[in-house]
Amino acid sequence: MKTSLRHFAVFALLLYTTLLSAKDTELLPSLKPLIEQVTKEFDQIPVERQLALKKVALFIRSKIQAKETPQLTFICTHNSRRSHMSQIWAQTAASYYDVAGVKTFSGGVESTACNERTVAALTRAGFTITNSTPGDKNPIFLVKYSEQAEPTRAFSKIYSAEGNPKDNFVALMTCDHADKNCPVVAGSVLRVAIPFVDPKVADNTPAEAATYDERCHQIAREMFFLMKQVNP
Fold it and tell me: pTM (2 decimals)?
């Protein structure tokens, strides 16, 4: 009888572990509606952008096969809007598709602050976000896509700042200005331009929230497409 109970306990533990490791069980429930939507919209991504994202997927796959860590650094001018959205959605998509070991980072050509409108848009999308250094000019926001995973630390910094990779990473240029003014990203082994229109154009207008949500949605769609290509 004791042996049977022991076997049942082991089976129950294995079942529980399997359920936890399913591709989307660890994601916050608040994120799932948007994720379900963007994963049905890959055909809306222009072909040239699909090709650029597939280059990055090939890099990730090659690193995984070589048992190395795939590192992605998303770069825009001020590291305040698009690069943060890209980093956070890419890490979320990697978890969703079980792309193990991927590490995402972000940075700018110069440092300002993670814009409060970016934080608001990501919160509306379903992330749990906490300001860990309230009152700072460049606060550190802790962004969670899962209760189990470590939160992403979102704050503005240059792309070569302490904590970001110094070599063997992909540089993804998320804005035209950074793409034109930073033709060489020191330490990167691959540089890919995926510029997004800056939602800043709608700041302090009636369209502000809708514009930020639209950009957040687009970036989510493309980051999920990217990670889906690693193991198509």
Answer: 0.88
